[in-house]
Amino acid sequence: MQRALLEDVEDGRRADGGAICKEPASVLEHQRRSDDELENQMESTVQFAPTPEQQRSIVRRIDRRLVVTVGAMYCVSLMDRANMSAANIAGMGTELRLEGVKYNTANLLFFIPYIIFQPPSTVLVRRIGARLHLASITLLWGAVTVGMGFVVNFGQLAGLRVLLGFLEAGFFPSCVYLLSTWYTRYEVGKRYSLFYLLGSVASALTGILAYGASAYPPHAPPPSSMIMGHLAGWRWIFIVEGVLTCLLAIGCYWILVDFPDSKRKTWRFLSVDERRWVIDRIQKDRGDTQPSPFHLRHFLGAGADWKVWAYAVIFFNTTTMAYALSYTLPILLVENMGFSVGAAQCLVAPPCAFAGIIMFLEGYWGDKYRVRGPIILLNMLLCLIGLPVMGWHASPSIRYLGVFLFTAGANSNVPATMSFQANNVRGQWKRAFCSATLVGFGGIGGIAGSLVFRGEDKVTGYKPGMYACIACSILTIMLVLLCDLDFYCQNKQAEKGKLLESHEVSGVSSGGWTSMQMQWLTVYSMTSALLGFDIRIDEA
């Protein structure tokens, strides 16, 4: 019939001089081709059913292109953010005359734009794509880091720290959001752990780099292999790390992948069928792969859920302790435990390596046995054991053992909290809002962490800082148990057929969850173990 219609159109064009019916013919031909392409695509999608081995191969490819890439970018992010303490020990404070509170002020200025610009970043990454967004800001903050190697006064340093905070604001929440869209609830914990594990390598590398740079006095020439002029050793910390960041950003632009539902092409990655399979399995697991149209009311409405703020406070407590260690651990090793400056810079690395092992094992265990809450409780228990040992034992060696426990508990709790939040949030825009608030409170924790171990507390052995970290650990335990109790009640309602949440899930009516009844992930939580009940997850 369509062929006959095209022949009629062709006859009409010949009779009328050739131009009048040309457009309708092309429209019909385009429609025919589109229908054929759509039919072929649908047939291809229906026919594609990967074997278990093919499924594992697809997930491994996603791991290589996504987790490893953003983990490497996060590594340089932490290095570029935390190199202030390394440079200060290597002579920056003396050369720039950072007396009084100037050094602390330069650290704090980073977090002002870092906190303010995090919420809109999760919207922006959806608009322009993760690959362009993350690679661009990484390249720019790498250039800023290079510039910090040439500052000559406190004003220039403070200005670049503000600019660095603005550029890095969009990175971490965007990575958390991006990772959560590619993996199921039972896969994301291990990926978050690996992501943060690669980032934690920065802590060890920064200390070792500081030790190498501190071997040169503030105005000594650099090694002969460095071709630039007579720059102080601390300046090379910024320059080398900044150049590495820029090179990594350029490479990651071609390697990093966008969101699963993105129409943008990715170089040598998944086929159309494989990408469709990824979307389908996430849809089956969570039912929120397709974002609804953005509405500010829906985006901000996620804040009405009290658990969103509970996740944020848990993350605030965690980052307060983690940043306190990052800012002052070398100082504590020198002034509170009696180690030399060079030894303290090197002794930062082993606890960070131990923390990396713990966080990866926890991520693997959490995904395999589908647990989230108990991991956070375990980490806080490590902190509650490590802090008293670190602060009150008479032997420096035993105190250093406490550093291992405290570092492992505080740092491992970062990916654990991310998984705890990501597994219990549905809806793309709510997920974006939660990622922004989570990391925003993490930035506030950075400000608090810079004030935990204060210089005036040296005479007391930094005991007030120890008490503050103990309080953060106890509050985190209370919040996790409260969330678990609420999840238990929610799961009981789901088992009775009652509806949970109502909007922004593709295929679900505005009335709420009907066919899927996806339940909250707190399987075998500490609360269930204590009270004798079992929280289950529907996998249908």
UniProtKB/TrEMBL annotation:
Residues 66-488 form the Major facilitator superfamily (MFS) profile domain. The keyword Repressor does not apply. Keywords: Membrane, Transmembrane, Transmembrane helix, Transport. It is found in: Membrane. InterPro entries: MFS, MFS_dom, MFS_trans_sf. GO terms for cellular component: membrane. Gene3D superfamilies: MFS general substrate transporter like domains (1.20.1250.20). The chain crosses the membrane at residues 66-86, 106-125, 132-152, 158-180, 192-213, 233-256, 308-333, 339-361, 373-394, 400-420, 432-453, 465-488. GO terms for molecular function: transmembrane transporter activity. It is a multi-pass membrane protein. This is Major facilitator superfamily (MFS) profile domain-containing protein. It comes from Drechmeria coniospora. The lineage of its organism: Eukaryota, Fungi, Dikarya, Ascomycota, Pezizomycotina.
